[in-house]
Amino acid sequence: MGRLVVCERKTLETYVRVEFNLDGSGFSDVKTGHPFFDHMLETLSKHSLIDLKISADSLKTPSIHHVVEDVALTIGEALDKSLGDRKGILRFGFAIIPMDDALAEVSLDVSGRPYIHVEDRFVGFTEGLDFSLVKHFLRSLAQSGKLTIHVPRIYGEDAHHVFEALFKALAVALREACKVVTENRSGIPSTKGVLT
Length: 196
Hints:
With 196 residues, the protein is of the alpha+beta class. The chain has helices at 35-48, 64-83, 131-145, 159-177; strands spanning 4-10, 14-21, 28-31, 51-58, 92-99, 102-109, 115-118, 125-126, 129-130, 148-155. It contains four helices and ten strands.
């Protein structure tokens, strides 16, 4: 399976380039201009074992909103392309990750059908990111990556810990879902024979 791709996204607001290796080792080189967002993307790479090289430039204003959205859309596109017809993958992934006072639960299906549900009682802001923007990242990732993502449980006192637990849970769930199952390497993981 050719699971190494390069994707670019250029709008009037941003230019994003992503080098994406689904069969990597968790290596990352991330430069978005927003250090905490970089840290979250490095966390995603490390715990998913996806190699990520990301550069993002704001072309108009240094707004983090456009950068977060366009980076998520580009990562999702790269994930979708690297999965191809999704033959041989496990398809489903699930993780519950604690981090000190925080806990995040992510369940996902690499189904070809974008859908997202996020438990939204948590309210938090830290280092340039608020929870609504993190949810926007997940929504954009689900849209372009054609993922079903559920975050039924998320809580904590420290927003940094909550966001990091969430990105770790997303990473571990993705690592599981995208794993190639040796005993079904040529099969589509669906009774329909197609994932869309």
